[in-house]
């Protein structure tokens, strides 16, 4: 059991309770909501009367968040037990390898969303030298993508608690 | 779990009424009716959790496939709870509603949600066998 762990570091003991697990899932949802509403805030602010400039949030600004969310969906759809156990099942041999490919696609989408957020921030806000209150829309884009990453990390960690929790209870 | 008496019901309905009062006041005082969305959000917030807990049996250790549904419900509930706070903040940041209206609708929304949650906690005992 010790060598096919996904984590390099040991988790503290309190992390393995059902309470910490559901709290982790709740806070993942909260972080994702925060990310969505931060970008929503940028979009609403862009359309409001406060925005005097002609820099506006368009579909391009939403695209990084869409990619990040897609990556998060893919990552957390992969069943964790498939990653370490290379068992033969009805889907053929090399299940762990296939699961890792899908997981790689998910991480690529997540990192691509983050990179896209930074790209939009640089190309649309930093290079044309947009003034500060308008610059906030670009900063919010980067922050939103970072929060989606954080949310998927929290969700991943709390879903990994599941195995040892149920193992402890069934003993 | 304390048993729910008459005093609990009275206190909960009192808090619920104060919550609704604050939210409606934040709308009607400034003639902008966007903060009413907070009520809808907090009423919707526990629903994914309830649906998921009906779908999945958490006591079933042999078949652990139901846990994904449970997690999805929790994720959606967390999303909606933060949405209730984030929505007035977004509206206030864009000057669609004032700062006092934002504060009132957030406090009112949290009171409403707290009432719903504690109502669920107090009266859960009767549903179980």
From TrEMBL, chain A:
Subcellular location: Membrane
Pfam families reported in the protein's UniProt record: UPF0220
Membrane topology field: Multi-pass membrane protein
Main location group: membrane
GO cellular component annotations of the record: membrane
InterPro entries registered for this protein in UniProt: UPF0220
Ranges that cross the membrane: 20-39, 59-78, 99-122, 142-158
Domain of life: Eukaryota
Leader peptide range in chain numbering: none
Similarity section: Belongs to the UPF0220 family.
Protein name per Swiss-Prot or TrEMBL: Uncharacterized protein
Species this protein is from: Daldinia eschscholtzii
UniProtKB/TrEMBL annotation, chain B:
GO terms for cellular component: Vps55/Vps68 complex
Subcellular location: Membrane
Keyword presence, Membrane: yes
Keyword terms of this UniProt record: Membrane, Transmembrane, Transmembrane helix
Domain of life: Eukaryota
Transmembrane segments: 6-25, 72-91, 103-123
UniProt key word Transmembrane: yes
Membrane topology, as annotated: Multi-pass membrane protein
GO process terms (BP): late endosome to vacuole transport via multivesicular body sorting pathway
Family: Belongs to the OB-RGRP/VPS55 family.
Protein name: Vacuolar protein sorting 55
Annotated source species: Daldinia eschscholtzii
